[in-house]
Amino acid sequence: MLVPIENLPPNSRIWIYQSNRELSETEVAYIKQELRNFLQTWQAHNKPLESSFQVLHNRFILIAVNQEKYAPSGCAIDKCVNLIQQFEKQLNVCLTDRTQVNYWKDNQIMCVNLRDLKETFSNGILQPTTLVFDITLQTLSEFEKSFQNQAQNTWLKKYLSNSPQ
Q1: Which of 38, 45, 52, 146 has the fewest other C-beta atoms within 10 Å?
Q2: Among 101, 74, 76, 97, which residue's Cα sits nearest to residue 85?
Q3: Do 47 and 16 share a structural domain?
């Protein structure tokens, strides 16, 4: 059952998918329509899941579900992941690669692979105060507080030991 995201409780479970590129307005419209259709009927063990979504910055898909009513089952989560994988195939985009880190640079969202992160910090491309997008968050309240946060305040701080200050 699709509800406005502001109607979900703070402890709602979330999943954040990030694109490896900016999505076009047409692609965003398509994703929104498909997510509306999917979440309207999303169920776990024949119980409707109170859920919502957002597409942010034409790059991130946030899906949230109220676990207080009914928690999503493994099968329900698999169906949602399958939809995301459908988007990947149909739009020729990567949404499930967790080895990418998106960050703000000169009013644009940039992307770096985890394997290049230490080097990116050490040559000053990323700074401890650079705003990064944290896709590891688990709840809606965490998302609202910390989705965009300085690198030094996220799990990325372990890469900062050799970076210029």
Answers
A1: 45
A2: 97
A3: yes
